[in-house]
Amino acid sequence: MWTRSEGHEAPFVGYHRDGHALIGRDEELAVLRTALAGHRLVTVTGAAGTGKSRLALAAVSSLPTDPCRTVVRVRWHDGVPVGRRALTARVTRALGATGLSWEPGGTCPRTADRPAPPGGVLLFLDDVDPVHTEGIGLVQTLLMALPTVRVLVTARRSLGLGDETVLRLEPLWYEPGADRARSSPAAELLLSRARARGWRGEPDPTAVTRVCRLLEGVPLALELAAGRLGEWTMEELADHLESGPCRLADPAPLLRRHRTLRTSMGAVHALCEPAARKVWRRLSVFAGTFTEAAAVPLCSGVDLAPHEVPPALATLSATGVLQVHGEAGGVRQHRYRMARAARDFGAERLSAAGEGPVTRDLHAAHVLGTAAVAETLWTTGLQRQALRTVQDEHDDLVALVRRCATGAGHVEEALQAVLHLWFWWVVQERAEEGSAHLHVLLARLPSSSPLAAYGQWLAAWLGATRDPRTAQRLLSLAWPAAVLAGDDALLGRIAHVHGTLAWRRQDAETAVRYYRQAAETTPRGAPGGPPPSVSLAALAVAQAHRTPAAAVRTARRALAQPTCANDAWAAALAHYARAFADHRAGRTGRARHHARRALTELESRLDAPQAHRALRRLLAALEPGATATAPAPQRLRHVPGPRDGASKPPAAATPAQR
Which residue of 240, 322, 389, 579 is 20 to 30 Å from 140, comparing CA positions? Predict the structure, then answer.
């Protein structure tokens, strides 16, 4: 059997488990064992705290005796000075103890005092980030000079040698299974470590998942969190993590840099070049994903040239500070996202450098510019791209609004961004979220701001059904400003919301009057809100209850609007109105035809779940054998609908029916 001697370099058998078994790494462990059996150089990489050393130790302890009969571990512990050729000297001493040695400056083995092990040697270079550059040349020389030597390396980035097999270790998966019958690997690790420390609480699965999600499944973070469950409940721990930077700590860690997440990030930061450090702290303002095109203008300045940013992004990605989403060089530009612990550390460094205000100004300008681009994409017919753009930048928009709520400024930029994204709140069933953002921003916006009336109109539109009294009050504030400004688009859209409120009161006559006013007042192509075809579609549905023939004509006008050619969402509403009007006029076959056509076009052009459901519901009601009256579209936005079998318009069921 192999034996292990004391110290950091020695022939090594087994590994130090520190009392805990691996959790959630069965697949990675199997892959690593296979790689060690078939390759001479294997590197385990990953971000700080993902458990690279623990996985490698588990693989080494279970190696069969045939490929390697001797394991030599050289670990670079915290606090060890890094001198010139320090790694080479330590490896030379460690290999010499096994009887296998070579001249450090050459490529040929030299004679040792004791015979070399017959089964070869596995050199385990553990945690060699401080001597990464030296390690590249050393490993290459060893593999060329000593054919019986294999090398296993753990580091935050690979060596980059041609015959290197790399296993990238990611954080543990933290979302529960679809049936929620089995907890996630991250949850298993959190609960296992907590119980090992004496915690005997009964965990709430929702709170456990929340903690694991906030810690992004990083094993070190989960183990630090487990140590706090003696003084906090799981819910209190989740609240603490969500309310601010992650301040978890362990008073007696195996490694000093694992005492807190901050010290772990500090160890990575200390090894970065100055340019990478600047990019790191400035990118910490991003709450979600971002592209290289967004990072360059935000990070560059008098002390950092634009061409220095992309190499820094590559370095931070290689060390796990940044996560890469998408394929580099693919059709769609890949995006970066900063890990939670790295973002908290970067924000602290940004504040210490005094660069916070300027960087946040640039971030607010980026969010506003992205929102404006998304609205342009929407109005020019590239609606899938518009929704994807907002989805990519949504986290940063929310972060900007939250900063405004704390009095950090940029209220007008945030409000403009929310107004640009009116289609997002409407089409993606996010009316409540958009309304909440608007109320937060309007409370901090100066009353003299010209944006106030637009914010009041949009907040009233999104909340008309859920809170009609507040919507009425907001419209009464927005209307005088729109009149004084002579803003026909805003006046028309205010009239549309009044039509929705009248429809909710079951006042069909008033709703028809307001919808007609909205359709006639709103200019074609006016940005910042829905086109006139949406008001015409609502007007047609409102008319269908009493004057089906007029409703058919109005629906045709809606479909003839130029905006319907590029606006799949507005076209779906107009088609719905046409189908419903035909049905009320007794043309069930034609109504079925229009509903099917609208559904086909919508499915091929846009992901609009509410309009999709409403059309399917209407189509089901029009099939032979269905009830005589088509049911109301309970979640179709901006187009009123009847109750099942009702002869007059009901109160709208949700904020969706405008």
Answer: 322
9 or 418: whose pLDDT is higher? 418
The model carries a pTM of 0.84
Q: Which residues of 439-450 are buried (b: 16+ CB within 10 A; e: fewer)?
A: ebbbeebeeeee
User: How many other CB atoms sit within 10 Å of the CB of residue 317?
Assistant: 16
Q: How far apart are alpha carbons 481 and 413 in whole angstroms?
A: 20
Pairwise CA distance, residues 187 & 48, whole Å: 19
Task: Quote the CA–CA distance of 45 and 66 in Å, as a whole number.
Answer: 26
Cβ neighbours, 10 Å, residue 587: 16
pLDDT of residue 359: 95
Of 1-10, 169-178, 209-218, least confident by mean pLDDT is 1-10
- State both tokens at 583: 């049905």
Q: What is the pLDDT of residues 459-507, one digit of tens each?
A: 999 999 889 999 999 999 999 999 999 999 999 999 999 999 998 888 8
pLDDT tier, 649 (very low <50, low <70, confident <90, very high otherwise)? very low
Token code pair at residue 434:
């958009």
Around 224, how many Cα atoms within 13 Å sit in the side-chain half-sphere?
A: 27
**Residue 290: Cβ-neighbour burial (10 angstroms; 0-12, 13-18, 19+):** buried
Instruction: Give the separation between CA 643 and CA 652, rounded to whole angstroms.
Output: 9
From residue 617, how far is each of 620, 622, 623, 636 by CA, in Å?
5, 9, 10, 10
Asked if residues 205 and 183 have their Cβ atoms less than 8 Å apart, the reply is yes
**Nearest of 163, 123, 166, 153 to residue 28 by alpha carbon:** 166
